[in-house]
Amino acid sequence: MNATAVSLQQVTVLGATGSIGSSTLDVIRQHPDRYQVFALTAHSRIAELKALCIEHQPRFAVVNDALAAQRLQSELRLAGVATQVLAGAQALCDVAAHPDVDAVMAAIVGAAGLPSAMAAVTAGKKILLANKETLVMSGALFMRAVHEHGAQLLPIDSEHNAIFQCLPCNYSEGLAPVGVRRILLTASGGPFRNSSYADLERVTPAQACAHPNWSMGQKISVDSATMMNKGLELIEACWLFAARPEQVEVVIHPQSVIHSLVDYVDGSVLAQLGNPDMRTPIAHAMAWPERIDSGVAPLDLCALARMDFFAPDLQRFACLRLAIEAAQAGGSAPIVLNAANEVAVAAFLRGDIRFTQIPQLIEDILGLDVVNQVQSLQEVLAVDQQARQQANSWLAKQKIHVGVSS
Ligand code: NDP
Ligand code: MG
Predict the structure, then answer these.
(1) What's the 3-state SS for 224-271?
(2) What pLDDT was estimated at residue 211?
């Protein structure tokens, strides 16, 4: 190994208390000779962040609330930890763009993760992108910023990481020049793959969050159950791999062992396989172009015995249909789709709407959008805010309606 390979990389983990954040820290923990934690960020789980600061001794920790930051700062001082605690959205951007940072794991959930991911890119960092909502909302701007600022973008989403591994390195000009016919994006189908529409109407938040193969945060778990996750991933794939929506085909593969495939014009189909554990794509992206141990058990094909594949049902899983339509419409449509989905998922988790009302809300809000091209981050955030307001009005009307009829 040469000197560069062993020099310590300074890593900022945005969303350190989440599912991806903790898998990232698990990989970092296994390679103290390669990675050092520079900054950790959290939102509501302050006690968990404190424990992580005591363990990893980062230079900075960031939380949203100023009072919580003050409290954490004094607790860390008492514990003899030198970490400086910062507060607010700008601080997330600052620790992502800090000159001493080499790599940034963007693992905040939802639209809240966009500004800090963009800050890492405009500072020319190596960005490990888990937050798919960033690309759904601002794909064109984000990809342009990656090229303009010489950032290195590595996909963490397991499907996109798989596709990245199956493509040649010069894929960024588009799929046709490198002989790719289509991308096959695999989906587990979630916990309700075989449920009838009548069953879907009665789904509870706890059932929706119990994914058969992956252990993930609540929002992405609900997205997987509605298959909105696959829709967001289709849009994500279009931006990452310069693909048109019709070049990305969704295939249900319940075992989640093939993480996605690339179909070449000569008939070769390349796939990446592995146990469903996010530490594999995280370790791949962190060490790329080298390979490091992730702690994931080797794949046992004989124990797996079989792999199944099905076409998705766009009627029962209307969220996937809506995402494909938004991808085709382009412009502001994916921003509206994402915002309405975030509001709908939060309402479902609070018990305010039924599972089957998630796509209804999104479809109604998408129907209000006059698809516009979006030229700046400010415009993206304005479309996002407007769609959230419309979605909240939809929910308020729904409550009145339920109140009157019950
Ligand atoms: P979690 O809900 O487990 O974690 C989310 C993280 O973001 C937490 O650290 C949370 O802090 C923080 N956070 C939440 N809201 C805010 C906010 N408003 N401002 C700042 N920080 C905030 O989510 P996941 O780890 O499951 O997912 C993270 C991202 O990665 C998502 O975009 C998801 O789609 C993507 N992804 C996840 C996969 C997975 O296997 N989990 C797979 C592929 C992609 P706190 O916990 O302290 O409140
Ligand atoms: Mg995925």
Answers:
(1) HHHCHHHHHHHHHHHHHCCCCHHHEEEEECCCCCEEEEEEECCCCEEE
(2) 86
